[in-house]
Design brief:
The chain is mainly α. Helix content is 64%, strand content 2%. The chain contains 12 helices and 2 strands. The protein has a two-stranded antiparallel ribbon. It is globular, with a radius of gyration of 26 Å. The N and C termini lie far apart (113 Å).
């Protein structure tokens, strides 16, 4: 055995540095560069919820900056993000996702207004804490990604190949509701029925009040129910922690790559040209409406000698 060892990031057992698998949980021992963030995830309370919320907020801040730089006012951008900015950062719409499939992933982190991200982040902060305590940090990340993508796939099936522009974390949030409901149902906790009814009713209320994407909500909820049942029925969950860590790492890399793909898309560039042309047509009409400034009175000229 080597003189110095290392700690398993999943069960915290001490192992020899030459060991490839943990002597207690039999999980794969990752290199230290990956083990350190995994230990942080397990040691920090609600770490995955904080990370996911931070990514959503950072993306929205970048979208605001892009919208203002493109010629819109800050208040107008907070009320409604321009279509070109939406598509530049990975929203779904105009059939772009048929070719740029990474939008099914990036759309989970894109929001269309300050109210949109505000409601979703409040829900994520409240629900993520509960879900993370039930399934753990790594499974929360996997649930967010899988249910968010599943919700947008359901939206694609419902609206067809050229559906309306859509984005947001709400499909993944309803997926997390599904994970929690499935966990309660598998444990035969009678609370699951009341929670399920409230979640479904809230989805319809949001749909009729704000015309939200009902297909993404219910699709994410359905996928979350399946994911939550699988997690709850695991006999030795610690054996899959290494695989879930790899999945989380691959999801992060795929998200970065999908954002880069959306940045290179010709779709948002064409929309930006149309928006600029529309502003150029409106500007000559708006300018004459502004009241003309009264001319300052001229000083009397002195009499000639």
């Amino acid at each position: 055995m080597a003189r110095f060892g290392r700690t398993c990031p999943f069960c915290r057992a001490y192992n020899a540095s030459a060991d490839a698998r943990c002597s207690r949980c039999d999980a794969w021992l990752p290199p230290e560069a990956l083990a350190a963030p995994l230990r942080w995830l397990r040691a920090t309370e609600n770490a995955s919820t904080l990370v996911l919320g931070g990514v959503n907020i950072a993306v929205y801040a970048l979208m605001l900056a892009d919208a203002v730089r493109a010629g819109g006012g800050a208040f107008q951008a907070m009320w409604s993000i321009p279509a070109s900015t939406m598509m530049r950062f990975g929203a779904m719409g105009w059939g772009a996702e048929q070719v740029e499939i990474g939008r099914y992933l990036t759309a989970c982190f894109v929001h269309l207004s300050l109210m949109h991200i505000g409601f979703n982040m409040l829900a994520l902060a409240d629900l993520g804490r509960v879900a993370e305590q039930k399934v753990g940090s790594l499974r929360l990340v996997a649930s967010y990604v899988v249910t968010g993508v599943g919700g947008f796939l359901a939206s694609r099936l419902w609206y067809g190949p050229v559906g309306p522009p859509t984005a947001g974390a709400s499909g993944a949030i309803f997926g997390l509701y599904g994970v929690v409901i499935a966990s309660l149902a598998v444990r035969r906790d009678p609370l699951w029925q009341g929670v399920f009814v409230r979640v479904v009713l809230s989805s319809f209320v949001w749909y009729f009040v704000l015309h939200t994407n009902q297909a993404a909500h219910l699709g994410g909820l359905a996928v979350g129910l399946g994911v939550g049942a699988l997690f709850e029925l695991e006999r030795r969950p610690w054996r899959r922690d290494a695989a879930l860590a790899v999945f989380a790492l691959l999801s992060a890399a795929a998200t970065v790559g999908a954002f880069a793909w959306a940045q290179a898309s010709p779709v948002w560039r064409r929309l930006r040209e149309l928006e600029e042309a529309r502003r150029d047509r409106v500007a000559p009409i708006v300018r004459p409406i502004a009241p003309a400034r009264p001319e300052a009175p001229r000083a009397p000229e002195p009499d000639d000698p």
